[in-house]
Amino acid sequence: SNGATLTGMVERGSRGKPMPASGTRVVLVPDSARRLRRDLYKNAIADSDGKFQLTGIALGNYKLFAWELVEDGAWEDSEFLKIYEAAGKTIRISDNGRESVNVDAIPPWN
To answer: Which of 65, 27, 21, 56 is nearest to 44 (CA)?
Structure first.
């Protein structure tokens, strides 16, 4: 099959009113039991309106992250993910499904 599609918007808080977070790296990470399967990771960059689309996603449970600043591939490091695990949004992908979700941007460390 071609897999599922996940679309959505990345937002960043701005004085109580969320704003689109353009240029944010959106990453879909498989559940911990499947994190060695690099083919299950999906990522994209949010467009100028904060919108993103991930396609070809296999059935299963994932965490969705949206980093304003992240080194390419850092999300494949289990120690790195431990730091951000609580900031991820749990997503259940059904076979050939179409899901839509909003996610908060993770700001860079100072």
So the answer is: 27
